[in-house]
Structures are given as C-alpha cells and as structure tokens.
Amino acid sequence: MSTSSPTKRMRSAARPARTPVRVVALAAVSAGALLLGAAAPASAATDDGFWYVDVLDLETVHAGGVRGGGVTIAVIDGQINTAIPTLAGADITVREPSFCYSESGEPLPAETTALSPTQPTEHGTNVVAMIVGTGEGYSGQTSLTGIAPDATILYYASYTTAIDDSVDCGSESGGANIDSQAQALTEALDAGADIVSMSFTGGASPDFVSALARAFREGVPVVAGLKNSSEFRLLGDMPANANGAIGVQAAGPDGGIQQTDGTDNADAKTDVVAPGLGITIQGSATAGSWEEQSTADGTSLATPLIAGALALVKQRYPDTTGNQLIQSLIRNTSGTPDHEPDYDPAQIYGYGLVSLENLLSIDPTGYADLNPLIRETPDVDDVLVPTYAEIFSAEPDSAPSSTPAAQEAEPDAMPPSVGIVIGIAAGALVLIGVLVLVVLLVVRRSRRGATTP
Questions:
Q1: CA-to-CA distance for 304 and 334, rounded, in angstroms?
Q2: What residue spans of 198-241 are helical by DSSP H?
Q3: CATH number assigned to the domain covering 33-407
Q4: What is the distance between the alpha carbons of residues 419 and 415, in angstroms, rounded to a whole number?
Q5: What is the DSSP string of 253-275?
Q6: FRET partner for 6 with CA separation of 20 to 30 A, picked from 111, 296, 303, 361?
Q7: In 150-284, where do the E strands start and end?
Q8: How open is the CA angle 104-106-111, to the nearest 5 degrees?
Q9: Quick one: which of 178, 211, 433, 206 has its CA closest to 198?
C-alpha cells in the first residue's frame, strides 16, 4: 500500500528501559503518514506473500485454541472496507462516522467500499486483516490470515488519505478544531480496549499526548509503527516515539529489516521486530479493485501482528495485566525465552524478533506490573513525551517506583505494627530512664543536705 511517508524505528544500547525520545513537534496529526511502502505489481503476489503464517506457526497456535478470543484491540487508522472476504464474520465494530468532514461540514463515513489512488482505503482494511483475517480471498484466492482471528476489534477512522482539499480531519462540522487521534484514543480507552494498535506517524498535539499518558497510566499497551526509512524528520514520529509506547520494526522472511539506500534502518525507538516485508495485501488503489492483490512492505503490517500477539498471550493467561504483557514481549523474543531484556546496541532489532512460541510458553503474571518502556528521566538532548509526571499526574500517589524490584516488599521487612510497638517501648524506656535520673538527683541532693553543717 502506497503511503505518504514510510515508517520505521529502533532502540539504543542494551537496557531494560526505553531509549531516548527525540524532540517531538506538538502539531496535530490531521492525516497521519501511513506505514506501508509502495506495493509491488499484482503478479508478484504469491503464496510466499503469506510467509509470516509459517514463521509464526499460526496454524499450530490456532489449532490449540489460542485465537485471541475475549480480548479487545482498538485500531486507529483510515477508512475501512469490512466487506472483503477475509474480514467476513470477524468481530469488528466500526465507529461511525469517521472523525473527518467534507468541505460542507458533513461527516465522512468510517466504512466504505471506495478505493482509488486518492482514497486508498486498503491501508486500514489490511491492517485489520493482519489481526482477524480469515485467509479467504475473492474467487478462490488466498488472502490474509489474522494472528488473532477471534479478537474483538474496535475500529476508529481518525483520518482519510484522500489527496483532496475538500476533506478536513481537524475540524468538526461547526468548525471547531479537534485532534482526531486524541479523540479516537480517548473513545477506545473509554470503551475498555485491552490493546491499542496505530500504524501511522506524525506530530502530536497536547490532547494526543494527554490521551497517550492516560493509556500508559491505565496500563493499556500502545503498539505503534516506526517510520519505514532512516531519513530524519522534524515531526516526532508519534505515537511510536511516545514515552511508554511499543515501537515496531518490520522484517522480511530472512529476518532482515527494512533498509534505506542499502543500509538497515536503525532507530533508537525500536522495541520489537515482526514480519512486515513482502506481505500480500488485498486491494489495489491504482486499479481501483478490491479483487487485485499485490505485495507490500512496511511497519503498518508488522504493528498489528504485535498487537495480535499480545492478544494471544492475554487470552492464554487472562489475569495478565497490560504492563505484564509488555514485560513478556521484550523478555521472550526469539532465542531463549524468559531472558533478561537484551537490547541490540546497533539499534536494529531492539529487544528482538517476536516469537509466539516463547511468548505463549511463559506465564507473564510473575512479572512486575510496570511498563518497562516508560522512562522517568531523559537522556541528554532528549525529550520524553509524555513525561513521567504527565503519565502519573492524575494519580500522584500511584506512580510506581522506577525499578520493578522496588515494588516488592523486602523479605525481612518489619511489619508496621511491630515498628509501632517497638517505638512505644523505646519511648517508655526513655521516660523510665528520665524518671530514674530525677529520683537519683533528688536522693543525692537530700543526702548532701543531711551531711552539711
């Protein structure tokens, strides 16, 4: 799927906490940069374009009954077409209308079958299919198989990609300026979303930052795609750059990530890597046909896979909190499961490639209920957005300690009641000592009086 600007990102040296957040311009995102690179011709779409199904061993996972049931994922994207075969029967609730308005002030629909170069609605459609797709296409085609097909999707169209001045996603019909991403995220949190997935980048208004802070405060994982290139951009590539968000990088069948001019896209904000290159997608904006297929690259496709992976873990271990899901995600990447978070110093793979086998083999409820990606203090020349104080300001007494261990009681710690008793006893001893001293002084003085001539 063509995008107005690619996405991508990565982390810095091995450390259990999130790395620097670059300076973020506080500009509202009226039309986020979608995170899919240019699609290849339809003839390039083959069964190999579904290689992620084998790499993640989805057939085995799904056959074992782990399909994301009972977990709600909010997806914030552009317009969507739920009528394509691979979304048939999926549990998708589309918020109508979208957060965009025509020039005349009429709200635009969130759901539409329209598809053209100026209305590439296949982006949000395929993002959702990566989570709940059935694998069925048109006329016997194979299409996208979702990682968590039984998950519940709450869908919010917060922007359109129409190259048209008649569309405004930053104003209501009455002309009042709004931040559509902030409003969408707020509604998703109000609706009780367990996980939030966003495959776009851009700036962030104060309202969006506030909504993100609320999500982190409430322990809701926010999964966001990194830009698809290593080019520097003044806008802060939010929400992936947010302090506490899960930054997702895209990889191909060989495990290699996206490149810019032959060089791996290193990024200090990459947390995990998921399949996202050479994936077959449904619909061609160029041809204006939903039946056409092509292959595409981008973190737009990798991001929903991470959101879906967290949903699978949540279904299998339902008592797991959102923060514990993030803990498990960065500890159980490919390689040895349940390892200490080990960050790639080259900022290419972050904490590693996603591994469903590892994630589903470890019960996360033993991990600290802390988001390990929230940083309390910035590095030099960096800005944390939102800040630690902004995240926990609504509940100042509930702000966690900066380290998980600090939340755990010391095994030999003294119970409060014992401390009180000891304090009273100590006070009593002091009082007794004072009384004894007074008595001795009085006796001594009286003796002196009796012997003096």
A1: 18
A2: 206-217
A3: 3.40.50.200
A4: 7
A5: TTS-B-EETTEE---TT--EEEE
A6: 111
A7: 152-157, 167-168, 195-198, 200-201, 222-225, 246-251, 259-260, 263-264, 272-275, 279-284
A8: 135
A9: 211
Q: What is the DSSP letter of 48?
A: G
List the pLDDT tens digit at each of the 453 positions of the chain: 433 333 332 232 333 333 333 333 333 333 345 556 555 554 444 558 999 999 999 999 999 999 999 999 999 999 999 999 999 999 999 999 998 887 777 888 999 999 988 888 999 999 999 999 999 999 989 999 999 999 999 999 987 665 455 566 765 555 455 688 999 999 999 999 999 999 988 888 899 999 999 999 999 999 999 988 877 655 568 999 999 999 999 999 999 998 888 888 888 899 999 999 999 999 999 999 999 999 999 999 999 999 999 999 999 999 999 999 999 999 999 988 998 999 999 989 999 999 999 999 999 999 999 999 999 998 766 789 999 999 998 554 555 654 343 233 333 333 333 343 334 444 444 444 444 444 444 333 333 333 333
Q: Which tokens sit at 51?
A: 């290689």
Give which of 249, 236, 266 is closest to 385, Cα–Cα. Answer: 236
Sign of CA dihedral 234, 237, 238, 242: negative
Which residues, at least 6 apart from 217, have a Cβ–Cβ distance to it below 8 Å?
A: 391, 392, 394, 395
Report which DSSP code applies to 415. Answer: P
- Cα–Cα dist 144/132, whole Å: 9
Does 386 sit behind a cis peptide bond, omega within 30 degrees of 0 on the bond before it? yes
- Residues 6+ positions from 25 with CB-CB distance below 8 Å: 203, 204, 234, 235, 236
Integer-rounded Cα Rg, in Å, for the chain is 28
Beta bridge pairs of residue 225: 248
- E strand or H helix at 85: none
Residue (of 309, 305, 229) closest to 262 by Cα position: 229
In the numeric block, the tokens 């008649």 are attached to 166
DSSP 285-320: TTTTEEEEEEEE-SHHHHHHHHHHHHHHHHHHSTT-
Q: Is the dihedral of CA 41, 42, 47, 53 positive or negative?
A: positive
Q: What is the reported pTM? A: 0.80
Q: In terms of C-beta density within 10 A (0-12 exposed, 13-18 middle, 19 or more buried), how is residue 125 classed? A: buried
Please tell me the distance from the alpha carbon of residue 160 to that of residue 29, in angstroms, as a whole number: 11
Q: Which residues pair with 7 in a beta bridge?
A: 227
Where do the structural domains in the chain lie, given as residue ranges? Answer: 33-407, 411-453
Show Cβ contacts of residue 433 under 8 Å, excluding neighbours closer than 6 positions: none
